[in-house]
UniProtKB/TrEMBL annotation, chain A:
Protein transport recorded as keyword: yes
Main location: Golgi
Annotated region described as Disordered, given as residue ranges: 618-646
Keywords: Golgi apparatus, Lipid transport, Protein transport, Transport
Localization annotation: Golgi apparatus, trans-Golgi network
Family: Belongs to the VPS51 family.
UniProt protein name: Vacuolar protein sorting-associated protein 51 homolog
Residue spans of biased composition, Basic and acidic residues class: 618-627
Cellular component, GO, one term: EARP complex
Biased composition (Polar residues): 631-646
Record GO biological process: endocytic recycling; Golgi organization; Golgi vesicle transport; lipid transport; lysosomal transport; protein transport; retrograde transport, endosome to Golgi
InterPro entries (alphabetical): EXOC2/Sec5_N_dom, Vps51
UniProt domain Exocyst complex component EXOC2/Sec5 N-terminal: residue ranges: 20-246
TrEMBL record, chain B:
Organism classification: Eukaryota, Metazoa, Spiralia, Lophotrochozoa, Mollusca
The species this protein was found in: Lottia gigantea
Span of domain EIPR1-like beta-propeller: 6-297
Biased composition (Acidic residues): 313-324
SMART domains linked to this entry: WD40
Protein's UniProt name: EIPR1-like beta-propeller domain-containing protein
InterPro entries the UniProt entry points to: Beta-prop_EIPR1-like, EIPR1, WD40/YVTN_repeat-like_dom_sf, WD40_repeat_CS, WD40_repeat_dom_sf, WD40_rpt
């Protein structure tokens, strides 16, 4: 209230002069303000209040003044007391100074009297330690011997190294010489024993390391030690390798498991699977060699930093040693992996290879400048390639099996009636498709084990790239598709051996190939690329190229099928024309059985083809119900002209003119992949044969009439199979025409009679 | 200038046999025999005038029956052998005879437009006892002896003919193979090599070689074609090579010393191949005809006697040709000729059953289709120069 007001509220106080507590309080303004603003009563109240406040403030001030006065009085008393105390202390300090100087004097006296004794004692202590050392030297041979007996070689060496220098220095004194020679003899023994131990097969690597360490301390030449060490290590490692070799022989069947020598080795004589084998290799061989490398490095390499030369020699020795052994090991592993070909399980193989690869990588860290993992990867990818080849063979085999299977099913006697047998053609196709596709899928799945993310070697681009694009895509999928195409093409080549390939199989394969083209190939390739993440597409076969193969194959097979079927029917027709004596037949009463057979066979073929192929387009198709009669009348109209002229007039001109207007018929032409087109092809071939055969014969009247009946019968039943019934019409007309030319007595049969016979037949 | 257009000659009747007049070496002459069961059959003697592109003809009547096979004598150009179908109401058998052409183009005046044709003069019938239907008659290929060979369904018969006394004496008849069901012979050729002591026959899918002296089989090509063998011909210059064609639409080349595999297979035709002929002068030219109504001229240099891909000495035959055509003569470095189709002739509209080279001009050939159309063609100029130069 009395100070710090400004600081407390600087902003407000500057402004208001009427604040009674503010710093800028102006009593006049305040008073004026009050008088002006307040009513009288309030002014009276205010005055009272103010008086009261002033009184309170006055009493407060009085108490404060009293309190401060008291404190001041007590402070004056205290200062007076302090003055007395300091005077007393000054006296005591003077006393202390005199005492201290007396003590200094005494101590100087004492030290001067003890000076001589101390020098004597120091000398005596020196003599004592010397004597102690001498005693150690004298006792050294005995100690060493004792150590030797106790086989505490390291202690012996420690003793010897301690004493060696002294002995060497005082060699000229006879007594020391004796000791020295004794020691040397013992040390000789010691090193002898150490070497013994070093060479001993049974000693553990740790013992070996100790030996080497000690021998080195005894100044043995490190190079020979290196050699000895390595050769010793080699013996041990060779044992491991022998175990591996033994396993390989067991697996290969060169040794039978029965000729056991010792029961303890029985486990060695049961063939291990590849994982066990690799484990065995890793645990036995690889860990041993790692141990050897590590201890060798400890012993020989990091010791002589000063001697660079020795270091490099030792390193080179190690390098040669390791490379040699690794080569052997790789050799074994490779052989073993190759043996794995026959069996099917990928997972184990991949795990084994992975383990192998990992261990090798670990080894790389151990020994710089070498790249065993590269060589190991080589083995891995070789193994992968072998697997792919193996699978390819299996796929090919499967494909062949599928075909044999189909052949067998086709050859199997049809249960009841022809059409039951035909009914399963589509089924056979789908069976084959799905079974081949499943097989491929499972193969791909199996192969995916090689690229699984937890497999270390799968991540290496050096392995992954070639494996995915070259091995799997090219080596497996593309090769397999190629194989299918060539196999199918081969079927088309062997025309000579009739009946060796059932035509139905050709048909199935044709459809299979065309399905390959339309769906399977792209699916397979994209599946492969997806599953194996094929990125590098250089040097790969284009999908379009494969599609082309399949397309060509499908077309070839289909053409071949048409040809084969056409030929079988042709053969029937030809035999029927060639073997009959057409001059002396009786008046036709029936359609010849051969024609019925032809129609039957073509119907059967139609059913077969219909299972696999689309109907296809026909020309000028009209409603089926009116078809038969319609065709019939139409055919009559068409037939009329060539038959109506008198036989004596040579009709070559007319037939020539007729031909001018009809298109030339390609007989063995390519067919489209539709049922109608296939059937048209077969019928064309058959009818053309019929025509050519007829032209080689001479007919009597009834022979001609028989042909008339036969062709009419064919006309009645064949139109429905072909795309352009005119074509059948033209060919059949030509047959009849030719027959008429070849007829001695060309009298045609009444159309109505023909109809009757055909209806009946 | 284009290649000369083919010359077409139409016969009234259907026909399937055509032969070059083999003993004629001056003029381009062919003989065609017709097939008609009901009308009188004819033998057309065709003369092709190369320079004017004209065809002259003589027509002779062949009254015995329709002609199934015809072959011209190799030593006397007026002689021709036919195999004809002798029909009665209930029987038809194929017999053979040798005929003499009554006259030639040289001594006949051009008044042959008279309505009646001269008949052929019969020299002698070929008696075949009961050896079956006659298939073809083969003359001695060089014309040295007057022996002929006739093939029936199942027998090979040798005759000795005497033109002076008009007789044909049967020397021997050899059955093809003992056994009844043997498929019938389809055709045969007399091998012009080995002193003309061998013939080859075809039945079904087999081709067999025979030694005429002993009548023993010398070789057999089994499964020469997938189906019936329709025709065979010998390479005129290479003694072991023969060509065959058949119902499997293929033409195959064989070496008779190694009959396991064909040397080459052509498959250009789309129906049965009925006839195949080597050119007598340039054996790389091979003609084939087929019931797909096409005639195809092939160049098979790789199996010919021509030095293959090598320099051939220049022939001096070209001096008269070079007058026509100088622009196609630039001396091309001779590229080795490749095998392949030279030309496909599509003038026919029916099956072409016969084709033959002229014996006089190495570049002219005739083909005959069933509808009676005879087409005379030439080897394309470019090809001709390629061979000659």
């Amino acid at each position: 209230m009395y100070y710090g007001v400004e600081g407390e509220n600087p902003g407000a106080s500057t402004v208001d002069p009427c604040d009674i507590n503010g710093a800028h309080f102006k009593p006049d303004i305040y008073l004026n303000k009050l008088i002006r603003e307040k009513p009288l009563t309030e002014l009276m109240d205010k005055e009272n209040e103010m008086v009261r406040q002033i009184k309170a403030l006055d009493s407060d001030m009085q108490t404060l003044v009293y309190e401060n006065y008291n404190k001041f009085i007590s402070a004056t008393d205290t200062i007076r007391k302090m003055k007395n105390d300091f005077k007393k202390m000054e006296d005591e300090m003077d006393h202390l100074a005199t005492n201290m100087s007396a003590i200094t004097e005494f101590s100087g006296n004492i030290s001067s009297t003890l000076q001589d004794r101390r020098q004597q004692i120091t000398k005596l202590a020196g003599v004592h330690s010397l004597l102690k050392k001498l005693q150690f030297l004298f006792e050294l041979p005995a100690r060493l011997k004792k150590c030797l007996d106790m086989k505490a070689y390291s202690q012996a060496v420690r003793y010897y190294t301690k004493a060696k220098r002294v002995l060497h220095q005082y060699q000229h004194m006879p007594s020391f010489q004796g000791i020295n020679s004794d020691c040397n003899i013992i040390i000789e023994q010691l090193s002898q024993q150490l070497r013994q131990q070093f060479k001993d097969k049974e000693s553990s690597p740790k013992q070996l390391a100790e030996c080497v360490d000690l021998l080195l301390q005894l100044n043995e030449p490190p190079e020979s030690l290196c050699d000895e060490f390595l050769s010793h290590a080699r013996q041990k490692i060779d044992e491991d390798l022998n175990v591996l070799d033994h396993q390989i022989k067991l697996q290969a069947g060169e040794i039978t498991a029965t000729d056991l020598e010792r029961p303890s080795q029985a486990y060695l004589n049961t063939p291990m699977d590849i994982l066990e084998f690799v484990d065995n290799g890793c645990n036995g061989y690889l860990s041993n060699i790692c141990l050897v490398i590590a201890s060798y490095k400890d012993m020989f390499l990091n010791r002589y930093q000063d001697d660079e030369n020795l270091d490099t020699i030792a390193l080179r020795k190690l390098f040669i040693f390791v490379t040699d052994l690794m080569e052997q090991y790789f050799n074994y592993v490779q052989r073993r992996v190759q043996l794995e070909k026959e069996t099917g399980d990928n997972a184990i193989l991949v795990r084994a290879l992975d383990r192998f690869h990992r261990r090798l990588q670990a080894m790389n860290k151990l020994l710089p400048d070498t790249d065993f993992s590269r060589a190991g990867l080589e083995i891995v990818s070789k193994a992968a390639r072998d697997r792919v080849e193996h699978y390819l063979l299996a796929l090919k085999q499967h494909f062949t099996d599928c075909m044999t299977d189909i052949r067998q099913k086709l050859a199997a006697p049809r249960p009841a009636g022809k059409h039951d047998g035909a009914a399963n053609l589509a089924e056979l196709l789908t069976n084959m498709q799905s079974s081949v596709m499943d097989q491929i899928r499972s193969v791909l799945n199996n192969l995916q084990a090689f690229t699984a993310p937890d497999i270390t070697f799968a991540m290496k681009p050096y392995f992954r790239g070639p494996f995915c694009s070259q091995d799997v895509r090219e080596g497996l999928i593309v090769s397999f598709i190629k194989h299918i195409c060539t196999t199918c093409n081969d079927f088309c080549e062997c025309v000579g051996e009739k009946g060796s390939i059932p035509p139905s199989l050709l048909l199935i394969l044709a459809k299979y190939s065309s399905d390959l083209e339309t769906t399977s190939i792209s699916y397979l390739v994209s599946l492969t690329e997806e599953q194996f993440l094929v990125v590098d597409k250089s040097n790969t076969t284009l999908v379009s190229e494969m599609l082309l193969w399949a397309k060509e194959t499908a077309q070839k097979l289909l053409n071949h099928y048409v040809r084969v079927q056409g030929l079988t029917i042709s053969q029937m027709l030809r035999k029927s024309v060639e073997t009959r004596d057409w001059l002396n037949t009786i008046e036709p009463r029936n359609v010849r059985a051969v024609m019925k057979r032809v129609v039957e066979d073509i119907t059967y073929i139609d059913v077969q083809v219909g299972q696999l192929y689309e109907e296809g387009v026909r020309k000028e198709r009209s409603s089926d119900s009116s078809r038969r009669t319609h065709t019939y009348s139409q055919s009559q109209q068409q037939r009329k002209p060539p038959w109506s002229y008198s036989p004596s007039v040579d009709n070559s001109l007319i037939s020539n003119i007729q031909k001018l207007f009809s298109e030339k018929i390609e007989i063995f032409s390519s067919v489209e992949s539709s049922k109608v087109s296939v059937l048209t092809g077969i019928i064309k071939i058959s009818l053309k044969t019929f025509l050519e055969c007829v032209r080689l014969r001479t007919f009597g009247r009834y022979g001609l009439q028989q042909i008339q009946v036969d062709t009419h019968y064919l006309q009645l039943y064949l139109w429905r199979f072909v795309c352009d019934e005119n074509l059948v019409q033209v060919l059949l007309d030509e047959i009849v025409c030719s027959t008429m030319h070849r007829c001695l007595d060309p009298i045609m049969m009444e159309q109505s009679v023909i109809d009757l016979i055909c209806e009946r037949g | 200038m284009d290649d000369e257009a083919p010359v077409i000659y139409g016969l009234e009747f259907q026909a399937r046999c055509l032969t070059a007049q083999a003993a004629e070496t001056e003029h381009i002459r062919f003989l065609v025999g017709t097939q008609s069961l009901r009308a009188e059959n004819q033998v057309h003697h065709i003369d092709f005038d190369d320079e004017n592109n004209l065809i002259n003809k003589n027509i002779y009547l062949h009254r015995e029956g329709e002609i199934w096979h015809m072959s011209a004598s190799t030593f006397d150009k007026s002689l021709v052998a036919t195999c004809y179908n002798k029909t009665s109401d209930s029987k038809s058998e194929i017999c053979g005879a040798i005929w003499k052409l009554p006259d030639d183009f040289d001594n006949v005046s051009s008044d042959d437009q008279s309505t009646s044709h001269q008949p052929l003069e019969l020299l002698c019938h070929l008696d075949r006892e009961d050896c079956g239907d006659l298939k073809s008659v083969l003359w001695h290929p060089i014309g040295e002896s007057e022996n002929i060979v006739a093939l029936t369904d199942s027998h090979i018969i040798q005759y000795s003919i005497d033109t002076a006394s008009s007789t044909a004496k049967m020397l021997n008849a050899t059955p093809l193979i003992a056994g009844k069901s043997q498929p019938k012979l389809t055709c045969g050729r007399w091998n012009p090599h080995h002193n003309c002591a061998q013939i080859a026959t075809a039945n079904d899918t087999y081709i067999r070689g025979w030694d005429l002296r002993s009548m023993e089989q010398t070789y057999t090509i089994e499964n020469a074609h997938g189906q019936l063998v329709r025709d065979i011909d010998f390479n005129p210059n290479k003694q072991y090579y023969l060509v065959s064609c058949g119902d499997d639409c293929r033409v195959r080349f064989w070496d008779t010393r190694n009959v396991g595999e064909p040397l080459k297979t052509l498959s250009e035709h789309s129906h049965w191949v009925w006839s195949v002929r080597y050119n007598h002068f340039h054996d790389q030219l091979v003609l084939t005809s087929s019931s797909d109504s096409r005639v195809i001229l092939n160049n098979i240099s790789s199996l010919s006697s021509e030095p293959f891909g090598d320099l051939a000495e220049k022939d001096d035959e070209d001096d008269d040709d070079s007058v026509h055509d100088d622009e196609s003569l630039p001396e091309k470095s001779r590229e080795p000729q490749t095998d392949g189709v030279i030309a496909t002739y599509e003038e026919h509209e029916d099956s072409v059953y016969a084709v033959d080279w002229s014996t006089a001009d190495p570049w002219v050939f005739a083909s005959l289709s069933y509808d009676g159309r005879l087409v005379v063609n030439r080897v394309p100029r470019a090809e001709k120069y390629k061979i000659l130069l």
